[in-house]
Amino acid sequence: MKKFFMYVLALALPTAASSQSILSNTTPFENGNQITYVFKDFRSGKTSELSYFFDEINDTSFVARFKKGELVIPIKSPRPGTVGDEVCLGNFEKCSFDPPMKLFDKNIKVGDEWSQSFKVLGETFSSDAAQEVKVTKQEKIKIQIGEFDAFKIVAKAKFKGVTTKGETFNGNETIDLWVGNVSNKTVLLKMNFSNSFQDRWNIELTHPLNLASTPVK
User: Fold this and answer.
1) Which of 14, 176, 190, 192 could share a disulfide with 28, CB 3.0–4.6 Å?
2) Which residues of the chain have pLDDT under 70?
3) pTM (2 decimals)?
């Protein structure tokens, strides 16, 4: 039985943080901004490019388009730092989260932690999830485009659900993500995913196409 519950954490997070954090000087993404990642699936060994195009940004939500090859999917998150109507990486289908999944708020700091439960409705499955999230540290990380100061956030979840074919599944997963300041924007720099079904993939920022890169010196 194919088990594939893999949800995405918002890939670009248009939010500002408190004056005490490395995200304090960030500003929201603007209409027309684009940001790009490389996606690597360790099971298949294949890599692909993922892009996000921001179409509508306001104080309470953002609307964007997700693009992978010829696949283009509209997405929407209800407010900065949450996942609402997104894309499930791994099977690349559109998913909705009820209530929206919280990643962090504007006052993110090391030691923050919270629990959350939500339902995920995909095109071929539905699932209930319970997740524990913690901001574990602040560190400098190196990625393809340079070195950046970032927060590391660890999210661990247990889930159970059913496919549209009536197959049931359950398991657990871990997501490590690093969020930093790129050109005064709050951006997901890197994310690693693994689950109890031996699925493993990661994404990494390759170039925020119409944002100038400003690595930490």
Assistant:
1) 14
2) 1-20, 58-61, 78-81, 104-106, 208-217
3) 0.82
DSSP, residue by residue, 91-158: TTEEEEEEEEEE---TT--TT-EEEEEEEEE-SSEEEEEEEEEEEEEEEEEEETTEEEEEEEEEEEEE
Q: Quick one: CA dihedral 211, 66, 9, 83, positive or negative?
A: positive
> Residue 196: what pLDDT?
93
Question: Residue ranges per domain, the chain?
Answer: 34-207
168 beta partners: 162
Is CATH 1.25.40 what the domain over 34-207 is classified as, yes or no? no
Residue 212, C-beta contacts closer than 8 angstroms, at least 6 positions apart: 183
Per DSSP bridges, beta strands 34-41 and 82-88 are unpaired
